[in-house]
Specification:
- The structure is a single chain.
- With about 475 residues, the protein is of the alpha+beta class.
- The chain has three domains: about 10-195, Four Helix Bundle (Hemerythrin (Met), subunit A) (Up-down Bundle), CATH 1.20.120; about 250-315; about 320-470, Heat Shock Protein 90.
- The chain has eleven helices and seven strands.
- The strands form two sheets. A five-stranded mixed β-sheet has the order 2-4-5-7-6, covered by helices on one side. Strands 1-3 form a two-stranded antiparallel sheet.
- Helix 1 runs antiparallel to helix 4 and helix 9 (about 365-380) runs antiparallel to helix 11.
- The protein is rod-shaped, with a radius of gyration of 54 Å.
Length: about 475
């Protein structure tokens, strides 16, 4: 289990910095390579300009050297010879600037140019009357040819430099594209990883809190993640333990109350029975009526205590929800069989209209809800009436209605019909209800992610609808 030694906020800040840092580093690397490539290109352009300048100087000085050399041969003027030697030195300097040209053919022609220049310089330094205009012309013609070849070789070298530059630029662009793609992919992967480290523990806590709300106790609250998330899990673990302790104390309290209430009620009931049997002596008609009222209220009080205890046990000690497939028709058929005598005595008809039969849900809780809704419908139905129980499935939600032909629920009672211990007017000849049945039905429905509602204003009589999602997720 991964336990991060820092808080949620610190991890969030670091996540932001790391995700932002990767593309920034990629951009800085691209900028460095492009800057380096730009500097190299400027240097190459400066070399080419220097080579072109040296080649122009070499050509210009060659023309001046040829003119002054021919004049010296004709006039034998020492000043002309010195002028020619100066032009020769200038050509040597220009040729030195061209030594860095990488083309092999260019260097070969340049070496030949230097050889011819050395030959002319030797003629100028030694007064030799045997040198003819034809010989000098042949040497200068060779130098002109060399100049043309060097220009061609330099143009070829410039084209090679352009191709090399274009290829390096293309390669750098591809590397930049790959680096950008890699940095974005790595940033996304890092963002996903950090998001998982941040939100996965919260998701697990949310699931366990949902189970805690459904009554599941004693869960494991150990989660990985930042320190504040783990502290939150520890607080929830303490809350879980406290709720479990409170429910145990409540159950113990109700067991004690059950004992304390049942004992005097049993004594009162036994005493009333002895009086009714005239063990202590004969009773007058008025006394019999009083004893009957006493026995009726004792029985009512006992029933309410039993219902209260069953409601508490169902609500606090048995809140586990177990979804499994079951048949609605079989469940309703069993209830109809068990209550056949009651239905027959009142002349009631129980009609089933089931568009959905095989469903998913907690069969025990659905059974308890249907029993409470049917008991409520039987109590308020007129003799010879009809009770319709219908069911259908809508988008994986089961909707089950119980409708009777009784007086229905008045507007003033509709708002409180599901409140604990609230009971509306009792039917003629019936004792008031405990006010727990509909509350229990709604509690169980909500545990399954659904609810029980009163459908009013649309049908004659009372109509209650139970619905729950078959996947157990709250709608």
């Amino acid at each position: 289990m991964l336990r991060l030694p820092f808080s949620f906020r610190t991890l969030l800040v670091w996540a932001f910095l790391l995700v932002a840092l990767l593309p920034s580093l990629a951009l800085m690397q691209m900028w460095w390579h492009l800057d380096h490539l730009s500097i190299e290109a400027e240097m190459r352009l400066a070399d080419i300009d220097r080579w072109q300048g040296g080649l122009r100087t070499l050509a210009e000085r060659e023309d001046h050297l040829e003119r002054s050399s021919r004049q010296w041969l004709l006039l034998k003027d020492p000043a002309l010879r010195q002028l020619a030697l100066g032009f020769a030195n200038d050509m040597q300097s220009a040729a030195h600037q061209l030594d860095q040209v990488p083309d092999a053919s260019f260097r070969h022609v340049l070496a030949d140019e230097r050889g011819k220049l050395a030959q002319i310089t030797a003629w100028l330094n030694v007064e030799n009357d045997e040198v003819s205009q034809a010989e000098i012309g042949a040497v200068f013609d060779g130098m002109s040819s060399n100049h043309v070849q060097m220009e061609r070789a330099l143009r070829n070298q410039m084209q090679i430099e352009r191709r090399v530059w274009a290829e390096r630029l293309r390669t750098q662009r591809e590397q930049a594209d790959h680096m950008a793609l890699f940095s974005v992919s790595l940033a996304l992967a890092l963002a996903w990883l950090l998001g998982y480290l941040l939100f996965a523990p919260l998701g697990r806590l949310r699931q366990r809190i949902g189970k805690l709300a459904q009554g599941v106790r004693g869960q494991s609250w150990q989660v990985a993640g930042p320190t504040d998330v783990r502290r939150l899990a520890q607080a929830l673990q303490g809350l879980d333990a406290r709720l479990e302790q409170l429910e145990a104390e409540k159950a113990s309290f109700f067991r004690q109350v059950s004992h304390e209430l049942k004992t005097p009620l049993a004594a009162i009931s036994e005493a009333s029975a002895l009086l009714a049997d005239e063990v202590a002596g004969p009773l007058s008609d008025g006394q019999r009526e009083i004893v009957a009222i006493q026995q009726s209220n004792v029985n009512t009080l006992r029933a309410r205590v039993e219902t209260l205890l069953r409601h508490d046990v169902a609500r606090w000690l048995n809140q586990q929800v177990v979804f499994q497939p079951f048949s609605l028709s079989a469940l309703i058929g069993q209830r109809q069989h068990d209550w056949h005598a009651l239905l027959a005595r009142r002349g009631l008809q129980l009609e089933s209209r089931l568009e959905a039969d095989e469903v998913l849900g907690d069969v025990q809780k659905v059974q308890t809800i249907i029993e409470n809704l049917l008991i409520n419908a039987i109590r308020h139905s007129p003799n010879g009436g009809r009770i319709v129980l219908s069911a259908l499935r809508e988008r994986r939600v089961i909707r089950l209605r119980v409708q009777d032909e009784g007086p229905g629920v008045s507007a003033e009672h509709a708002a409180r019909i599901f409140d604990p211990f609230f009971s509306g007017p009792a039917p003629a000849g019936e004792n008031p209800g405990s006010g727990i049945g509909l509350t229990m039905a709604r509690t169980f429905a909500q545990l399954m992610g659904g609810d029980v509602q009163l459908i009013s204003g649309k049908t004659r009589g009372g109509c209650f609808e139970l619905f729950w999602p078959e996947d157990g997720k709250k709608t």
